[in-house]
Amino acid sequence: MFELRLVQGSLLKKVLESIKDLVNDANFDCSATGFSLQAMDSSHVALVALLLRSEGFEHYRCDRNISMGMNLGNMAKMLKCAGNDDIVTIKADDGSDCVTFMFESPTQDKISDFEMKLMDIDSEHLGIPESEYDAIVRMPSSEFARICKDLSSIGDTVVISVTKEGVKFSTRGDIGTANIVCRQNTSVDKPEDATIIEMKEMVSLTFALRYMNSFAKATPLASQVTISLSSELPVVVEYKIAEMGYVRFYLAPKIEEEEADPYVETKSKAQGKPTAETKPKLEIKPDVEMKPEVDSNMDNEVVEIKPELESKMEPEEESKTDLDIKPKKEANGEVQVMDVE
Amino acid sequence: MFELRLVQGSLLKKVLESIKDLVNDANFDCSATGFSLQAMDSSHVALVALLLRSEGFEHYRCDRNISMGMNLGNMAKMLKCAGNDDIVTIKADDGSDCVTFMFESPTQDKISDFEMKLMDIDSEHLGIPESEYDAIVRMPSSEFARICKDLSSIGDTVVISVTKEGVKFSTRGDIGTANIVCRQNTSVDKPEDATIIEMKEMVSLTFALRYMNSFAKATPLASQVTISLSSELPVVVEYKIAEMGYVRFYLAPKIEEEEADPYVETKSKAQGKPTAETKPKLEIKPDVEMKPEVDSNMDNEVVEIKPELESKMEPEEESKTDLDIKPKKEANGEVQVMDVE
Amino acid sequence: MFELRLVQGSLLKKVLESIKDLVNDANFDCSATGFSLQAMDSSHVALVALLLRSEGFEHYRCDRNISMGMNLGNMAKMLKCAGNDDIVTIKADDGSDCVTFMFESPTQDKISDFEMKLMDIDSEHLGIPESEYDAIVRMPSSEFARICKDLSSIGDTVVISVTKEGVKFSTRGDIGTANIVCRQNTSVDKPEDATIIEMKEMVSLTFALRYMNSFAKATPLASQVTISLSSELPVVVEYKIAEMGYVRFYLAPKIEEEEADPYVETKSKAQGKPTAETKPKLEIKPDVEMKPEVDSNMDNEVVEIKPELESKMEPEEESKTDLDIKPKKEANGEVQVMDVE
C-alpha cells in the first residue's frame, strides 16, 4: 500500500507541467524517503530528477518500495482536473496495476477520483553524484526564463560564462548576436530578487536553448533557480520545492573547437586523435543521497546523455558532440561511473 | 413592425455566443409573448430553446407574429460589434427582408446600425412538454462547465448519476477512468454556490460530452444551471436569463446495454427483439407555454433527435442508439407526440 | 558615430510593433534633427513616416547624417528583448555595417546588448507636403481601432464620411451592411475621450480596411488618433508620440464609380477617357520639414502608391484604382511632385 496526501495540490500540477514535455514515460519511485523520479528525455540529451521528501506530505505511507511507471502526459491531464486549492491524494494498492488520484475541494463538496493504468517501463537509473562545481549561480527563476526565451529569438545555443562580477548569456544567429549580463546583486529588498555567484574558476559552456527553455517550465515552482557549472560536467539547473525537495535538470554541454585561433586548432588536430583530445573524461561517484529511492529490484541500465547533433553553428565553429555519459554498475552495486568516451 | 430595446445589450451577445456553435441557421419567433427560438443542432441530436419574455425589455413592440430566419454566426458577428454597455435595439419592418441591429453607447456619442438579410428557413417546431423529471440538479454553472471540460480530457461520454447525496459525473477513456461527485450543499454563503438535488427516483444516464461542452458555453448567462433528468426523456440543461426567460438545451441520452452482468445482457438479448427492449418509448404532450410563439403559418415538420452514432465505448459496452424523437402533428394541430421507436 | 538613448525604452518597442507588419525592410535616417523613417508597404499602397525628434531623447549624438537599413521584423525581435522599464540605447560607429541595441534594467543589474547587421536598401524618399485637408477628425485611438476591427467582420472596405455633426464609418459585405457614427463631443471629462471635427468641406472616401487595421497597431502609442481627409489626397492617420514626434500612415483612397445613378456613370464613361476622368490629379509640393532627414547621398526614386486591385465590391460597383502617386525630383533637387496619372 502506497498513499500520499498533499494539501497544496497545485504543487503536483506544477511539477508535472514542468517535466511532461521533456519526458514521455517514467517510473515514479516510492520509498520511505519520498516520492522521486529520474528520467532521461526521449532524445537522451537531458536528465530530470525529482524528489519530494516524505516529510513534506500531510500523510505519507509506503509499506514497501515500489516503482510506478506512468505516462507523464496522461498523469498531467488528470492532475489538471484538480482545482488549485484541492487536496490531492495519490494511492496504489500492493500488486495493483493502477494508481488513483483523488482531489478534494477545500469545502469537501466536490470529490474526484481518477484511475490510471500503470506501465512497465525499463528503468534507467543513473547514480548522480554530488559534484563540486566551478561556479554556482543563483538568480530569479523568472529572469532566467526570460533570458532563455529572449535568446531563442536570436539563436539556437547559449554560451553561459561566469566571472566574479556576473553571469553572461550569449547567442548568435542569422540576424545577429546577443549578450545579456546579470550582475551579482545581494543587496536587494526581497531575497528572491538576488543574483548570487559562488565561483572557484571562471567557466564558459555552451548549451542548446531548446532544453533550457524546457527546463524553464519549472519556473512556477520556485522564485529562484540555481545553475551549477563545471567545465567537464553536465550543467545542473535546479528548482527547489519549498520544504519538500527539488526538480533538477541535467544537460551535457556542447563541445566546440576553439574558434579564436585556427592555428591552435590545427595543431591540436594534428596530435593523432584530435576529437578524443577535446572530450572531457567524466568519472562520477555514485550519489549517496539518491540511493535510498532506488528500488533494489530494478536493474541499472546503461544510459547515454547525447548532446544534440544537429548543430546550427557558424561554419568556423566545429562541434564535437559524441559525449556519452554512461552509468556503470560495479559488482558490489555501490560504485557507478559516468564517463565519456 | 417589430422592435425590441434592451439596455443590457451584452446579454444578447452572450445568448448568441451560447447557441451559435450548436445551430447554424434558425428562426427567431416574435410574438406578443416575447422573442423566442427553437432549433435543432445540425446533426439533429440536440435541441435548443430560447425565450426572452416581452416584459424583460425596456421597449417591446410586435404588431403581428413574425418569424425571422437568421444565420446565427452572422448575427453573432454583428452583435459582437456592440460594446458591453451598449443599448441594443432589434427592429424589422413588416414585409421587410432585413433586420436592423442598433447599438447606442451609454453617452450616445457612438451610434451603430447593422443591417442583415433575413433567410427563409424551414421551420421545425417541436412541442416541448413540461415533463415531470426523476431528478433535478441545480448547481453552479461554472462548476458544471469545469466538470464537462475536465472529463473531456479523459473520455467522450459522461454518465450522470443522481442519488440523494449528490450527483456523480463519470467517464472512461483510453488513459483511465474518472468520477466526480458533487455533494448536495444548501448551506452556502452565496446562493449561487449551492448544489441542490430534488430527487424522486435514482437516475443514471449517459450523454455525449461534446454536446455538454457546447451547452456550457451559456455559462456567462447564469450563475446556476439546472439539469433535469428522467430515465426515458432527453436531459434538459437550463440557464435562466434573469427576469427575462431562459436558454434550454435538450439532449437524448445514449442507450447502452448493461455491462455489469453479461448473463443478464445475454438473456435480455434472447427475448426476441433485444434492441427494441432497451429503448424508451416517449410520448410527449405539447407544451402549452411554448405554443404562443409559434407562427400559425409555419408547418410543424417531423424532427428527429438522433444520438450520435460514432461510439467510442469499451468493447464490453454495446450502444443501441437508434433513438428517434419525432414530433407528430395531429389533425387538430394541437397534440404532438415525441416518441422513440 | 551615432548614438541615441531613451529612458522610456518601451516606446521604441511600441513604434516597431506598429510598423513591422506593414514594412519589411526600411532605412532609418539619422540626422541632427532626429531619428526618422519613411517607407512604403511591400505592396506600395501605403506609406509610413516616423519621426522621433532629437530633443526627445535623453542623449542624442549624430556626427553626420547616416541612413541605416534594417529588417524591421528582426529589429522588433531584438527590441522585444528589452524590459518595459529598460533604458534603450541605439548606436552605430561610422562606417560600421552593424547597429547595437543596448538595454539597461532600471537597477543596472541586467545589461543586454544586441548587434544586428545593417542592410543596403534602395531608398525611396517621397516629399510629403503639409497639405490643407477638407476635414480633420481627432478621436480616441482605441475607438478607431475598435471600429476598424468591427467593420472588418462585415466587409473589406470602409467609407469614411465627415459632416459637421460627426464622422461615419460604413461598410458592406456578404452578410449585410454596417454604419457607425461617432458624434463630435468636446465636453468630456478626459481630453483623450474627445471626438473633435474640424471641417471645411464634407468629404466621403473609401479605404481598404486591411490597411486601416494595420495602422491601428499604433494604438498603444497615443490615446488619440488624427485622421486627415481630402477628396483628392491620401488619408493621413497620425499617432503623436508624446514630446518626440509621430507615426503617420498615408493611404490612397479607393476610387469608385457612382453607384447611385447608372446613367451618370454611363455618360461619364462615354466621354472618351472615362477612367482618367475619375482619377484625382495630385500635385504635391515637397515637405520642407521632412527634408533635413534626407541623406544627400540617397537618390530619390520614383515610388508608386497603388491602391489594392483585388476588389471585393458588389457587382454594381466598379472600382477604378490605377491611382499612382509618384514623387519626381526636379533638376534642382528641391521640388518634388506627387501626381496621379
Summarize the structure.
The structure is a homotrimer of 341-residue chains. Helix content of chain A is 15%, strand content 36%.
Q: What report would you give on this structure?
A:
The structure is a homotrimer of 341-residue chains. The first copy, chain A, is an alpha+beta fold. Helix content of chain A is 15%, strand content 36%. Chain A contains six helices and 20 strands. Chain A has helices at residues 10-19, 72-80, 141-152, 209-215, 262-270, 274-277; strands at 2-6, 25-30, 34-40, 46-53, 59-62, 66-71, 87-92, 98-104, 110-117, 135-140, 157-162, 166-173, 176-183, 196-199, 203-208, 224-229, 235-241, 245-251, 326-329, 336-339. In chain A, the strands form four sheets. Chain A has a nine-stranded antiparallel beta sheet. In chain A, strands 5-1-7-8-9 form a five-stranded antiparallel beta sheet, covered by helices on one side. In chain A, strands 13-12-11-15 form a four-stranded antiparallel beta sheet. In chain A, helix 1 (10-19) runs antiparallel to helix 2 and helix 3 packs antiparallel against helix 4 (209-215). The N and C termini of chain A lie far apart (43 Å). Mean pLDDT of chain A is 80; it is low at 257-304 and 306-341. Chains in contact: A-B, A-C, B-C. At the A-C interface, strand 13 of A face helix 2 and strand 9 of C.
